[in-house]
């Protein structure tokens, strides 16, 4: 089995709701859900793991995910934070930015993959390797600030993503109206952060169908406040959840989910990292387990959980056992070793983990430049150095 081989696969004895069931993936899509499964392809026992859609991280800067948190908050806005921390000739920016952009993009992808993310919205310049990462990066257009010019695009027809109202000062509260004046609000536009928005702004977002991606951990760290999520929900504004980069945000999307659980009820919160997030990113076929949907899914070993929501919201990265993207294994751990094929193995926090992509070479280069880590909160090492 090569790294990109799709397999006809039946995973038996998995939990979608409560009772064990079976899921079959054929030709890269979910072909059958429920028991008894069709007798075709490879059969594996899911061991009672919870099977969930691959997670969607609606905001990240993949090229910055090797950085530690930067700065000494609070700040009035993100511009002030950027001016305070951007010192490319000093550590740690010097070492991280010394890596090639493609290497840094791969590490951002692995940061997400190791937390069960199969789709991520990258907010930065494009690169040829975005289509070769072990996670999906949908098409996008991006503005760094509401008053700026188009930063670039990747793919065709993607939504427009804009850092907006990322602050707590007076200027930040004018940015939604500034986008409206430029004709940039609407169902194909997505605001990132949305902290400094009032009731009139929320009404405007709801009327225009503009979505908001919330990044509570990053916002609380930098500004002591986050988006008015409850008001946005009540107004019917489409919402998704993002980690932001590790320079200000959480270590991974599972950690972000736990932080957000204090602000959002379980059912809508799960949607903010699965189906709702996928629709906002312009890929509504993702983020769900349904016949003919792409076979993106994760298996979580959380036997104490009583519901799928509980299994996800209480999940830790080490409970992740298997990640499939379009039916292709991207992360494999015990007890699913039969699916590892030609994936490369490293130790993640001491546990053997098989990953898609050139992880062995990348890890050797990373350790030679940045030392032993940890990187995004994880201890990564060659298998021979447990």
UniProtKB/TrEMBL annotation:
Top-level lineage group: Bacteria
Coiled-coil stretches noted in the UniProt entry, renumbered to this chain: none
Domain Amidohydrolase-related, residue spans: 174-304
EC top class named in words: hydrolase
InterPro entries attached to this UniProt entry: Amidohydro-rel (IPR006680), Metal-dep_hydrolase_composite (IPR011059), Metal_Hydrolase (IPR032466), MTA/SAH_deaminase (IPR050287)
EC number: 3.5.99.3
Keywords from the UniProt entry: Hydrolase
UniProt GO MF annotations: hydrolase activity, acting on carbon-nitrogen (but not peptide) bonds
Descriptive protein name: Amidohydrolase
Species in which this protein is naturally found: Gloeobacter kilaueensis (strain ATCC BAA-2537 / CCAP 1431/1 / ULC 316 / JS1)
């Amino acid at each position: 089995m090569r790294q990109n081989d799709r397999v006809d696969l039946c995973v038996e004895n998995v939990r979608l709701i409560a009772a064990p069931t079976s899921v079959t993936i054929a030709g890269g899509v979910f072909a059958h859900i429920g028991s008894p499964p069709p007798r075709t392809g490879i059969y594996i026992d899911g061991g009672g793991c919870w099977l969930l859609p691959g997670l969607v991280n609606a905001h990240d800067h993949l090229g910055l995910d090797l950085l530690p948190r930067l700065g000494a908050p609070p700040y009035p806005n993100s511009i002030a934070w950027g001016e305070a921390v951007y010192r490319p000739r000093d550590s740690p920016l010097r070492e991280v930015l010394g890596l090639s952009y493609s290497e840094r993009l791969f590490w951002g992808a692995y940061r997400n993959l190791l937390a069960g993310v199969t789709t991520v919205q990258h907010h930065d310049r494009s690169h040829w390797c975005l289509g070769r990462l072990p996670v999906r990066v949908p098409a996008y257009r991006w503005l760094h600030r509401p008053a700026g010019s188009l930063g670039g695009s990747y793919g065709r027809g993607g939504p427009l993503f804009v850092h907006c109202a990322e602050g707590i000062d007076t200027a930040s509260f004018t940015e939604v109206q500034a986008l409206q004046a430029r004709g940039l609000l609407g169902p194909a536009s997505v605001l990132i952060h949305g902290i400094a928005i009032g009731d009139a702004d929320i009404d405007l977002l709801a009327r225009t169908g503009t979505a908001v991606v919330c990044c509570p951990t990053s916002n609380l760290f930098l500004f002591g406040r986050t988006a008015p999520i409850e008001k946005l929900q009540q107004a019917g504004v489409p919402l998704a959840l993002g980690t932001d980069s590790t320079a200000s945000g959480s270590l991974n999307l599972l950690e972000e989910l736990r932080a957000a659980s204090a602000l959002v009820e379980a059912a809508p919160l799960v949607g903010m990292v699965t189906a709702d997030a996928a629709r906002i990113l312009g890929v509504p076929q993702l983020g769900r387990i349904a016949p003919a949907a792409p076979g993106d899914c994760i298996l979580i070993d959380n036997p104490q959980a009583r519901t799928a929501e509980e299994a996800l919201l209480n999940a830790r990265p080490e409970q992740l056992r298997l990640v499939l993207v379009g039916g292709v294994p991207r992360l494999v751990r015990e007890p699913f070793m039969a699916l590892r094929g030609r994936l490369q193995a490293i130790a993640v926090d001491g546990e053997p983990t098989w990953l898609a992509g050139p992880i062995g070479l990348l890890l050797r280069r990373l350790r030679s430049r940045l030392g032993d880590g940890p990187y995004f909160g994880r201890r990564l090492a060659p298998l021979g150095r447990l």
